[in-house]
Amino acid sequence: MSQDVSNHPVPEAFAKQANLTPEKYAEMYEASIKDPDGFWAEHGKRIEWMKPFTQVKDVSWDKDDLHVRWFADGTLNVTESCLDRQLETRGAKPAIIWEGDEPDDSHTLTYRQLYHAVCRFSNVLKEMGVKKGDRVTLYMPMIPEASMAMLACARIGAIHSVVFGGFSPEALAGRIVDCQSEFVITADEGVRGGRKVPLKENTDRACDLAKGMVKKVLVVERTGVGVEMKDGRDVWLHEVGAEVDDTCAPEPMNAEDPLFILYTSGSTGKPKGVLHTCGGYLVWASMTHEYVFDLKEDDVFWCSADVGWVTGHTYIVYGPLANGATSLMFEGVPTYPSPSRFWEVCDKHGVTIFYTAPTAIRALMREGDGPVKATDRSTLRLLGTVGEPINPEAWEWYFRTVGDSRCPIVDTWWQTETGGTMIVPLPGTTKMKSGAGSHPFFGVVPKLVDAEGEVLEGATQGNLIITGSWPGQMRTVYGDHERFVDTYFSAYPGNYFTGDGCRRDEDGFYWITGRVDDVINVSGHRMGTAEVESALVSHDAVAEAAVVGYPHDIKGQGIYAYVTTVQGVEPSDELKDLLQKHVRSEIGPIACPDLIQFAPGLPKTRSGKIMRRILRKIAEDSYDSLGDTSTLAEPEVVDELIDGRQNKA
Ligand code: WT7
């Protein structure tokens, strides 16, 4: 066999207490495929409805009439599931455990406290003039107010659009304008790894760039640093919040009314506003959260993602709260003040389920076993990963060193578009192979296809498609339904194309191999190469740019940029610095190229198309297998590129 595959049985002690068994999984999976309507009619009831649905699935993936609707005649408000219904039996249970950037800074909010805080927050939004259907942009640090802001929007029927706090003012402005958001919620500053992030200042700049679009800015006090408040536009949460009621009636929403927009990178330049709606999304978030994580009443669940990504939406806020779970929220970074921090937090709060990204595992693995072994971790019973394929070495280290070979690992494959987990070794139901996404969740039918759309059977490799809808599926690209149809349903008509490549082994396990489009995955974050290219080209010194990914030890993929300068501008190290700074300010630090190579020209076909295949090979330092270059307009540029490559072994 080509790959060293470790097979791990389910640890015995875990299997004994698992919610699922292999038989139960098989039975439920079969039911979900044979009779989706019956299956989801039952599981749709797991959330709170104001008016119960009678319709279940109403979906067409036909290009000419593409629509996705679930539970379409039901009425609900998602915050009733997340808050109101928890009060009776879980009012005093911790809903959010917040761990600040500094180890001595933490506090807990019970379900009752969170409920009242969200109601207050909702009333503040109303005071500001936010109405049902309005878009509200959140640009927040990892503090409980971020979750409250999301829930408050949901409570009054406004649509939240969370923009990751690491994005630049330019990127924030672009997302504000795209969804015509007149309201922004931010904080004075964020704090991460001992450093301050000037969120309010960035917001001011974004508001300027958005040219009058933003009418009101709500500011949460995090550090108390003095920030400028613009008269008539800016308000403090603690000031208005003190004057409003701590109850607020939930707005009745149709199941298919929008809940949130979340921007994500695609193959083309502009990020897409992925739209999720109320009913189906919450069913999917809560159901996957319960089954993927083998949830029990006393669990302390920690998802280390940022609320700026879909992982934070589904597994810090909506999934755990809809299930009445205790969700830990961490403001800081894995290595501050020391590389033991993650595990110290686990000990401090008795974390039982821990969910993080392969990039964090690799970074911590590099620090050796010491920082892990200095901690206890005995409360942990289940570990999870998400965001990119996990290499077997990192998987084994996570399993043995972090989990003491006691905790199963759930490697969860999903996307912003899917709302929640799609492919996963559900704990207790399957042996584990280090690095395999393994098996479909209930209701999910994956298939592998070749470039022509031919379905491939048995042990094979191909492009990953999903053949039918699931409740958590995105509904459209905000304001651009056409783009939704084109992006996901045109490559393999009648099916959802994931953009990922995938292998299926002899045992039927799925192994995600990574993106097959022009999207790269940097530390588990999606980055469109076209987005970075247009940021580079917007600099005066740049005539042309081509961006590709290359293997990176910690980040999974690094960003490699080929840049051609305009006439009269000489390449230099200073210019590299300038260009890196420029991309940071156009998009944010996560988009900053790791390596820049100045190129006299780029390899193009005679019709002018850049041959990325060749650029990828050179960036990977594997240029002896460049394949056919005879169709190039100027084959000599290839030798020059090879000579000047930046990633020499
Ligand atoms: C892309 C989606 C889902 C939340 C975080 C990322 C890659 C995600 C895995 C995994 C292999 C994975 C895929 C996917 N990906 N999880 N467990 N194994 N690859 O969400 O930013 O929408 O990115 O991340 O390539 O398409 P996203």
Automatic annotation (TrEMBL):
It holds the Pfam family ACAS_N. It catalyses: acetate + ATP + CoA = acetyl-CoA + AMP + diphosphate. Residues 84-470 form the AMP-dependent synthetase/ligase domain. ATP binds at G387, E388, P389, D411, T412, W413, W414, Q415, T416, D500, R515, R526. Its cofactor is Mg(2+). Acetylated. Deacetylation by the SIR2-homolog deacetylase activates the enzyme. Its EC number is 6.2.1.1. Residues 531-609 form the AMP-binding enzyme C-terminal domain. It is an enzyme of class 6 (ligase). It comes from the Bacteria. InterPro entries: Ac_CoA_lig, ACAS_N, AMP-bd_C, AMP-bd_C_sf, AMP-binding_CS, AMP-dep_synth/lig_dom, ANL_N_sf. GO terms for molecular function: acetate-CoA ligase activity. CoA binds at R192, G193, G194, R195, T311, S523, R584. Keywords: Acetylation, ATP-binding, Ligase, Magnesium, Metal-binding, Nucleotide-binding. Residues 25-82 form the Acetyl-coenzyme A synthetase N-terminal domain. The keyword Magnesium applies. The keyword ATP-binding applies. The modification N6-acetyllysine is found at K609. PANTHER family: ACETYL-COENZYME A SYNTHETASE, ACETYL-COENZYME A SYNTHETASE 1. This is Acetyl-coenzyme A synthetase. It comes from Henriciella marina. The lineage of its organism: Bacteria, Pseudomonadati, Pseudomonadota, Alphaproteobacteria, Hyphomonadales.
